[in-house]
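Quick one, probably user error.
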């Protein structure tokens, strides 16, 4: 099996340079894509349907041909290399297992077509099955196994021939919520153990945050931001990323002054707030201010915040460890607040006047998405 790359190994395993893709000659599904995939990393391509993420994966696999630009794997241009000669493992949502073959025969297949010796094949198959904890299932047929077990077989088959790279297209999408979350942890542990380079496609932001070393957020065929999960969530590059990754509140206003990395913004309801500059802004610019629901403080907890705004409670939902409070600000703009239940023993009543507080470092002035 592949050995884990060292954390300092920053050599790009895959590179996209000015890659474009169009199907009709007019509309670009992927626009001038420049992307480096680090050796041994788990990179997720995340975005809504039609954003270009799956098209990128299919071009890397060889099932689609770029309209323009260049794709390299381990330094070699692969634009014209057929899929079966790229030494890439693939895992699909529908598993793509051969139903007439046993689990062991499914895993032997990619090794047999590479004409490996029988003894070597047997050894690799046994190791792959043990890796996904299915060592005793080799004689079963796919239809005799659960969805999670079939997905682990598909993963083992993608890894059994020591591929250069493993591509995964929504591989957990057909599983129920509990099994999907279990498989996410299994997949994360397998990657940590083997260190194989994985490029993973999903539209599920929680899945991306759980699994990835880095996430590339796509929209309109353009990468809006590529970063580690914490940076994407806490420091989104634009309003699309802020709204697509996690839950977000957006306030509109006009920049009145800029002081280094902070700015003063007059909100459309007339209130003035201090915010951090998440994007370059200057006096007079329109700005969208982003704040996460858990970063908004209520009533007593808001007293130490630099920004305090008044409003009214419009909805309260009890969710065990926290309350979800919908607050209407002056000017009828709303904020969603996630308030720890332990801090708010008194349940808010609908219509109550309330103060909300936001610190400037958690209120970010953002620009529009790229390619919009």
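Nope, works fine. Designed sequence:
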């Amino acid at each position: 099996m592949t050995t884990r790359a060292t954390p300092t190994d920053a050599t790009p395993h895959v590179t996209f340079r000015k890659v474009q893709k169009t199907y009709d000659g007019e509309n670009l599904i992927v626009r001038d894509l420049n992307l480096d995939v680090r050796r041994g990393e788990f990179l997720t391509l995340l975005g809504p349907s039609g954003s270009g993420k799956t098209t990128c994966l299919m071009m890397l696999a060889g099932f689609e041909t770029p309209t323009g630009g260049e794709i390299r794997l381990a330094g070699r241009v692969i634009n014209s290399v057929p899929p079966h000669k790229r030494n890439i493992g693939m895992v699909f949502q529908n598993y793509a297992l051969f139903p007439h073959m046993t689990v062991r025969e499914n895993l032997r297949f990619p090794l047999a077509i590479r004409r490996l010796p029988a003894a070597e094949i047997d050894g690799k198959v046994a190791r792959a099955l043990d890796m996904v904890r299915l060592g005793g299932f080799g004689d079963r047929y796919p239809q005799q196994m659960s969805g999670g077990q079939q997905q682990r077989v598909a993963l083992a088959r993608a890894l059994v021939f020591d591929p250069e790279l493993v591509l995964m297209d929504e591989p957990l999408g057909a599983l129920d919520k509990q099994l999907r979350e279990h498989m996410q942890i299994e997949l994360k542990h397998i990657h940590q153990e083997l260190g194989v380079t994985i490029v993973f496609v999903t539209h599920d932001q929680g899945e991306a945050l759980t699994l990835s070393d880095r996430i590339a957020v796509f929209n309109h065929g353009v990468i809006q931001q590529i970063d580690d999960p914490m940076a994407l969530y806490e420091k989104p590059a634009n309003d699309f990323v802020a709204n697509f990754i996690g839950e977000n509140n957006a306030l509109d206003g006009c920049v009145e002054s800029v002081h280094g990395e902070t700015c003063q913004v007059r909100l459309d309801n007339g209130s003035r707030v201090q915010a951090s500059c998440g994007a370059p802004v200057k006096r007079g610019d329109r700005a969208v201010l982003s704040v996460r629901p858990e970063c908004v403080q209520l009533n007593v907890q808001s007293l130490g915040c630099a920004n305090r705004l008044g409003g009214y409670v419009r909805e309260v939902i009890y969710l065990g460890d926290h309350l979800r409070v919908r607050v209407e600000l002056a000017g009828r703009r709303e904020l969603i607040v996630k308030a720890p239940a332990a801090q708010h023993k008194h349940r808010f009543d609908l219509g109550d006047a309330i103060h909300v507080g936001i610190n400037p470092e958690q209120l970010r002035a953002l620009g529009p998405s790229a390619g919009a």
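The chain has two domains: 12-239, 240-366.
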